Amino acid sequence: MKVRVDAGVCAGFSACLGVCPEVFELHDEGYAVARVGDVPKELEEAVRQAAAQCPSGAISVSED
Ligand code: SF4
User: Fold this and answer.
1) What does the function comment of this entry state (predicted)?
2) Between β-strands 32-34 and 59-62, what pairing exists: parallel, antiparallel or unpaired?
C-alpha cells in the first residue's frame, strides 16, 4: 500500500497524526507529510482510517 498527502489540500487539522503518528507527521509549514511511501502491513488499517477521517480529503491511498 502506498500513501501520500497533498500538501496543497491539507489544512493541518492533524487528525491523521492522532490516528497514525507512525506514518504521518506535521511539516514545519503546517501541513502533514507521510514519513513513508510504502506502508508497513501492520499500519495499513490505521492509514485507511486516517484517510477516511481527514476533513480535507488530502490523503490518498493506493492498494499496490
Ligand atoms: S487530517 Fe488531513 S487535513 Fe489534517 S493534517 Fe492530516 S492530511 Fe492534513
Assistant:
1) Ferredoxins are iron-sulfur proteins that transfer electrons in a wide variety of metabolic reactions.
2) unpaired
